[in-house]
Amino acid sequence: MGSKASWWRRRAGVVAFVSVVVTLTACASGPSGAGVSPKETTGNSAWDAIVAKANQEGTVTLYLSTPGVEDAVKAAFSKSYPGIEFKLFRASTGDMQARLDQEIATNTAGVDVMVVSDAPWFEANKGHFALPKGPAFQKYWKGTDYSHAGGLYINPDVAPLGIAYNPDLIKSLGAKPIKTYADVLQPEFAKGLIAIQPATFSATNAKYWFGVAQHMGSDAIKKLADLGPVPYDSSSPAVQAVASGEHAVSIYQVLAPAQALIDKGAPVKWINPDPAIGTVHNAAIAGWSKHPNAAQVFMNWLMSPAGQIGLCGNGLLYCPLTFDQLGANVPDTMVELPSNITLLPDEVSTETSDWVNKTWKPAIGG
Questions:
Q1: What pTM was estimated for this model as a whole?
Q2: In whole angstroms, what is the distance from residue 137 CA to residue 208 CA?
Q3: Is 119 exposed, middle or buried (0-12, 13-18, 19+ CB in 10 A)?
Q4: HEC profile of 270-293
Q5: Which sign does the torsion angle of CA 175, 176, 177, 178 carry?
Q6: Would you give per-residue pLDDT tens digits along the chain (366 residues)?
């Protein structure tokens, strides 16, 4: 097996992140933005005309694969642009890509702006995107490590991937609390007490498991298979089953659905073990949008401090802009991204593919 360096993409050498940890309602009622307001004009008559046309179009539709931020994004954008009706379609990454592929193939306009994971899909389809024309791209994103293909798509956030567990069930089983990736492989979790999202489910899953296995000890995947893990296709039902006591642990667990249960008092804890892992989302303007000006305005807002607070302000996602860039109105609950965060690589390497075929599939299946 290769070294960790072949898998991890460290945040060192890139623009500093910040993370935010507030409740779901905090960013909905928070400030409209800091620094350059998305409502302000720049003296650029071309951009001012785009904003005017966007208000005439009157609607923008966002396709979003990230759970837990929908209400906050809607409230924050609507506060900034009350004349543009905000519509949202949310689905898992796989379902979203299938829908987008169909729209592209049939030239059917549905999406205006998309925020979805899986960078290879964005790179393969970059010819179908429109370049952002607003001032936020020029000021905050152009030339950074979070802008790709000349700005055709950007990384507006990082989603932390961790482990959720039921502390009450773990205690009753006589198992130790989950602190490391290797702790998932305790024998007390045999016979279906571990929820997983398999390495074969998506490219992101494959990259995650290839890296995590290196931190679980020797023969990790065989040991995992022997415990009889239960596969899920998304984090939400997996963590709900943890809360109900059906499972003790859910690994490859997105924070958002876990935090929603924690906020309701469910017996769930969530951790991002060392090394902490995150996966980037990608955002782009659909070149086939039927609201091209509203799409430009929404994308500009998303890349502005107001949009970053709207998207990341509840602490479920990490924000690529620094506190200095966000300005004086940063919520006091915002905290810095852990310095040891590692980002999943954009591409599935040959080494990872071989590992899935030779290690994962023989043990757990496809």
A1: 0.81
A2: 30
A3: buried
A4: EECCCCCEEEECEEEEECCCCCHH
A5: negative
A6: 333 333 444 443 333 323 222 222 333 333 333 333 445 556 788 999 999 999 999 999 999 998 889 999 999 999 999 999 999 999 888 889 999 999 999 999 999 999 998 888 999 999 999 999 999 999 999 999 899 999 999 999 988 899 999 999 999 999 999 999 999 999 999 999 999 999 998 888 999 999 999 999 999 999 999 999 999 988 999 999 999 999 999 999 999 899 999 999 999 999 999 888 988 899 999 999 999 999 999 999 999 999 999 998 888 888 888 888 888 788 776 655 666 788 887 788 999 999 999 999 999 997
Beta-carbon neighbour count of residue 74 at 10 Å? 16
Cα distances (Å, whole numbers) of residue 96 to 90, 126, 287: 8, 16, 17
Q: The tokens of 186 are what? A: 């305790």
Write down all domains in the chain, each with its CATH number in brackets.
32-157+281-315 (3.40.190.10), 160-278+346-364 (3.40.190.10)
Q: How many residues does the chain have?
A: 366
